[in-house]
Amino acid sequence: MKIALTDFDKAFENRIRLQIMSVLVANESYDFNSLKELLAVTDGNLASHLKALEKEEYIIMTKSFLGRKPNTSYRASAKGITAFKKHLEALEKLIKQQKG
Amino acid sequence: MEDKDLYDEINSIKKIMERSTKFISLSGLSGILAGVYALVGAGLTYNILPPFAITRYSNVEVDRNSSVGLFYGSAYKYNYIEILFFIASAVLILSIGTGIWLTARKAARNGQTVWNQSSRALLKNGILPLLAGGAFILILLSNGYYHIVAPACLIFYGLALTAASQYTYGDVKWLGITEIILGLLAMLLPGFGLLFWALGFGVMHILYGSIMYFKYDRENSAD
After folding, report:
1. Taking Cα atoms as reference points, which of B201, B126, B135 lies closest to residue B159?
2. How many cross-chain Cβ pairs, A to B, lie less than 8 Å apart?
3. Which of A20, A91, A99 to mutate to test the interface with B (most CBs of B within 10 A)?
4. Is the pLDDT of residue B67 over 90?
5. pLDDT above 80 for B218
6. A80 and A61 in contact (C-beta within 8 Å)?
7. Of B7, B87, B137, B151, which is the most exposed, with the fewest CB atoms less than 10 Å away?
8. Which of residues 21-40 of A touch B (CB under 8 A)?
């Protein structure tokens, strides 16, 4: 139990942050509004979680313009993908331990 | 961490990953209806036109003074193509309309919008084979190669489906592959274009639409 728990990433403790990371690992990039809709969260909530992940350098933000509308999109960094995989492995280990 | 929490966590990851990459609001029911429209269209075509006129005889030069010529003369031929074009357009417009309507309805039930990242990806990938196929078929029509129109419809539609399928249910890929095979068979057996067209756009849509309806639509409406 102890070993597995040390592998858990603090950044992914929050369910929404983990979900954001799942989306960004599965897709090349994802924009703010699509993320908001997919996860069914409020603007402020999503923004704060994105900021937290950005601070960890797990995700990279790109701002661009679609015509006149500003468009903010995010993608997972190499560091973020590694951290996400490690976190999943830790979850897997925990499950195996509980079964065994 | 509790047992249940752990499974919830993993399930939520799985679900989100799938929902973010795949457009899951595609309606199976709309596939069934598109198949019905196609069968009605094919039935009308078969009854209005002399048997297999479009595929077998329409670009064969016939002596206009003979009685056969009356039937397959150029004046007549032009009308057939117009009627056919009208039927095909009606089937297409009805199918697309129903598809958009039912898919939007299903998306609303799922709490999703129709126009999202995955549906955009779906269209972006499917549109190129469709446009290429559409242009190709128009060129075939204008050059009088009527017998290759049905196989070309099936093959390009199949290619569009397989290209778009990675952004939606896996069943769509199998439908695409089936359409391509039917298109190739139609090419092998000239004269049966309409039959293969009815099989591909009618029967297969109903078949795969039903599979998707029972697999995904019902499950979702029960939620």
Report:
1. B126
2. 46
3. A91
4. no
5. no
6. no
7. B7
8. 22-23, 25-27, 30-31, 34, 37-40
Q: Which residues of B touch A37 (CB under 8 A)?
A: 112-113, 116
**CB–CB of A24/A76 below 8 Å?**
yes
Which residue segments constitute the domains of chain A, with CATH numbers given?
Answer: 2-99 (1.10.10.10)
Burial class (CB in 10 A: 0-12, 13-18, 19+), B142: exposed
Provide CB contacts within 8 A for A52, sequence distance 6+. Answer: A11, A17
Name the residue in chain B with its Cα closest to that of A14: B9
Q: Which tokens in the block code for residue B148?
A: 């290759």
Structure tokens, B128:
């190129």
Nearest to A94 among B6, B112, B116 (CB): B6
Which residue in B has a C-alpha nearest to residue A40's C-alpha? B111
Shortest CA gap A96–chain B (Å): 11
Q: How distant is the Cα of A1 from the closest Cα of chain B, in angstroms?
A: 10
pLDDT tier at B13, thresholds 50, 70, 90: confident
Say if the ipTM goes beyond 0.90. Answer: no
Instruction: Say if residues B52 and B189 touch (Cβ distance below 8 Å).
Output: no
pTM of the model: 0.74
The highest-confidence range among A62-66, B51-55, B128-132, by mean pLDDT, is B128-132
Provide the 8-state DSSP code for A49: H
CA angle B190, B130, B117 (to 5 degrees): 150
Q: What are phi and psi of A75, to 5 degrees?
A: -140, 160
Q: b vs e for A56-70, b when ≥16 Cβ sit within 10 Å of the residue's Cβ?
A: bebbbeeeeeeeeee
